[in-house]
Amino acid sequence: MTASIKKVGSVSVQAGRWTRGKLKVGLYPDGRNAFIPLLTAGSKTKGPVGLLITGAHGNEINGPEVVERVLSALDLSKLRGTLIVLPIMNPWGFAERSRFVSIDQRDLNRSYPGHRKGSFTFQVAWTIMHEVVKLADFVIDVHDAGERQIMLPHSRIHAEPKYDPTRAIGLAFGSDVVLVRDAEPGMLAREARAEFGTPVISLEIGGAMRIWEDYQQRAVHGVLNILRSQGMLPGKLEMPAQQLLLNKREGSAAELTGIQSTWPSIGHVVKPGDPLYQIYNPLTGEKFVHRARTCGVVLSNNILGRVDKGMEAIATLNFTGCGEEALTRGDIIRNRAGSNVRIVSTGLEWRHPAHE
Ligand SMILES: [Zn+2]
Q: For labelling alongside 313, which of 20, 39, 185, 305 has CA 20 to 30 A away?
C-alpha cells in the first residue's frame, strides 16, 4: 500500500501519536450499532501499513496482553508508516469468556470474508476485512490455546507457495518453531490472502486464561522484530541461530476420563518411547501412559489435570526423522539485519532455550 492513510473507519490517523476510537462493525438484532475499539498511529514519512489484531476468540487473553505491551514498548517517534490496532475484535466473547461471538454463537475466525448483511458475526468479519484488512500491507493476528491448553509461542505460515510473503514475516517473529500449515476456510489468514493477497501471520502464545510472563516477553520481542523486518521500525532483527519449520502436528486424545499428569514441558524434544502423559481414573484404578511414537517437539498440552476421554491431552510437532542427518536438510536465509539464520525443516538436536 505505502500510501498515507488519513482515516480508518471514522478514526483519524495522526503522526507520532495514538488515536483511540471505535469501528462500527454491524447491527445488533435490535438495530443498535455495534462497535469494537480501534487505535491508529502514523508517521510524517510514508511507509507500510501494518495491522496488529487480536481477541477474535474471547477465551484467549494472551493476545490482547501482548498487543497492549507492544503498544507500550513502541517509540512512536521512530515509527515509519501507519500502524492500525484492533485490541479486541470479539468483545462479546470476552465478556463471557467464550471463544465465540455470543450474539450468534459463531467463530469469528471461521467467518471471513463475511457478509455485509449476514448474521452478526458475518457483519463483523465483513467490516474487518473490507474497512481494515484491505488497507494493510501485512497483518499480525495474535491468539492463544484457549481455556484448557498452553501453546509454545510460535508463528504460523502458509504451506504454499514456498516463498510467499508470510514466510519472511513469520520467520521474523523469531520463534524457535514455525508451524507451516494450510489455513482452514473462513480463517482470516486464508481469506485475506485469497481476496487481497494480504499476508496474515498468526501467532500463538500460551493460553489457559493465564498470562505467561516469559512467553509475553518473547512475543513482544517477536512482534517488534516483525515491524523492523517490514521497515516500520529502525534497528536490527534479533533472531535465534536456528529456526525449525515443522508441519506435522499430531494431537493425542485422552484415552480415559481421569487425571492427567504430563511429563515433558512444551518446547521439549521427545523421542520414540518417551512417556508424554499418564491418565489415572480414580474410580476404576485404570491407568494409561501415552508414549511418543516418533521424534518431535511438544507444541501444546492440557494444563487442567481433570480430563474427559477424547479431549486433546497433548500435541507434538513431529520431525520426519530422528537421525543427525535431519539437521543437514536446512536452508540458510539472510534476514534484514544481514545475519544468517539456519532454517531446518526437521531435526532432533534442538531444545527450547527456556527449558534447558
Ligand atoms: Zn484464537
A: 185
The per-residue pLDDT for 134 is 97
131: burial class by Cβ within 10 Å (0-12, 13-18, 19+)? middle
From the number of C-beta atoms within 10 Å of its C-beta (0-12, 13-18, 19+), residue 10 rates as: exposed
Q: 60 CA distance to ligand 1 centroid (A)?
A: 6
Ligand 1 centroid from CA 98, angstroms = 11
Distance 172 CA to ligand 1 centre (A): 21
Rounded-to-integer distance, Cα 311 and Cα 223, Å? 32
327, three cell numbers: 539437521
Range 17-42 burial, b when 16+ CB lie within 10 A, else e: eeeeeebebbeeeeeeebebbbbbbb
CA of 86 to the centre of ligand 1 (A): 14
* Cα dihedral 292→294→296→299 (10° resolution): -40
* Separation in Å, CA 59 to CA 89, 256, 271, 288: 12, 26, 33, 30
Q: Ligand 1: distance of its center to the CA of 275 in Å?
A: 29
Instruction: Work out the mean pLDDT of the chain and round it to a whole number.
Output: 89
pLDDT at 243 over 70: yes
Most confident of 135-144, 265-274, 297-306: 135-144
Exposure string of 270-288, with b = 16+ CB inside 10 Å and e = fewer, is beeebebbbbbeeeeeeee
Residue-wise pLDDT for 257-294, tens only, equals 999 999 888 888 888 899 999 999 999 999 999 999 98
CA of 15 to the centre of ligand 1 (A): 31
CA of residue 246 to ligand 1 center, whole Å: 20
Give residue 144 CA to ligand 1 midpoint distance, Å.
Answer: 6
Q: What is the pLDDT of residue 353?
A: 36
